[in-house]
Amino acid sequence: MDEAAYPWPAIDLKDPPEYIKYLSQHRKHGLDFLVITQSPKFVHPFVLENADGHIHLSQEWSGNKQYEWSEYCANPKLKTNRANAVKKPYKLEKKAFELYYSASLHVEKPKRQFLKWFMRQFFYYSRFRQWQ
Q1: Can you tell me the distance from the alpha carbon of 2 to that of 55, in angstroms, rounded to the nearest whole number?
Q2: Average pLDDT in the 15-43 region?
Q3: Would you give the end-to-end CA distance of the chain in angstroms?
Q4: Partner residues linked to 65 by β-bridges
Q5: Could you tell me the strand order of the sheet in which 86-89 lies?
Q6: pLDDT tens for residues 54-66?
Q7: Nearest 5°: CA angle at 99, between 90 and 2?
Q8: Does residue 5 carry a pLDDT above 60?
Q9: Contact call for residues 55 and 87 (beta carbons, < 8 A)
């Protein structure tokens, strides 16, 4: 379920609607859901509490990382929560962009221009020091 905030929005938090309560019984019917969202804050808390696992994908300066918890993690950006997660690198499959239209519009590889600039300056500086 992509963009899970649309079918299960974070509204009416005290008394969730019946269709949201039904999610606690989905296994009786042999159903499992893969829920995708930009942020867990957009999804109803009842849905989040029924999650058996939580995977958070992050683009960092050192590359793409995958953090995985055995249950829902309320704040995946917190350092202590990331320390408790199973962390591993991941690579975006090029084939996935063909299947998912909007991903090709807004996902870019992070630019490491500063690192290139710094390395170039260091190289020129070291050459200059050798020349003197």
Answers
A1: 14
A2: 77
A3: 63
A4: 58, 89
A5: 54-60, 63-69, 86-89
A6: 889 888 888 889 9
A7: 75
A8: no
A9: no
Residue type, 94: K
Q: For 7-93, list the strands marked E by DSSP.
A: 54-60, 63-69, 86-89
Residues whose CB is less than 8 angstroms from the CB of residue 1 and which lie 6 or more positions away in sequence, other chains included: 7, 33, 34, 35, 36
Phi, psi of 66 (to 5 degrees): -120, 125
3-class secondary structure, 61: coil
Using a cut of 0.70, tell me whether the model's pTM lies above it: no
CB 90 within 8 A of CB 56: no
For 81, other C-beta atoms within 10 Å of its C-beta total: 16
Of the pLDDT bands very low, low, confident and very high (cuts 50, 70, 90), residue 101 is: low
What single-letter amino acid sits at 35?
Answer: V
